Amino acid sequence: MGRLRWIVLVLALLGAALSVWRLEAARVGLDRQSLAVGRTPATVWRLPGAGPAPVVVIAHGFAGSRPLMEGFAEALARAGYIAVAYDLAGHGRNPVPMSGDVTAIDGTTRVLMDELARVSDAALALPGADGRLALVGHSMASDIVVRQAMRDPRVGAVVAVSLFTRAATGTEPRNLLIVTGALEAGLTDEALRTVRLTDPTAAASQTVGPPENARRAVLAPGVEHVGVLYSRTTLTESRDWLNAAFGRDGVAPIPLRGPWVLALMVSLTATGWPLAGLMRRWRAEAPPPSLPRGRFWVALALPAIATPLILAPLKISFLPVLVADYLAVHFALMGGLTLALCAAFGSLRPGGWRALGLALPVALFAILIFGQGLDRYVASFWPTGPRIPVVLAMAMGAVPFLLADATLTEGGRARWIRTLSVRAMALASLGFAVALDFDRLMFLLIILPVLLLFYLLFGTLGGWVGRATWRPGVQGVALGIFLGWALGVTFPMFAA
Question: What global pTM score does this model have?
Answer without folding.
Answer: 0.91
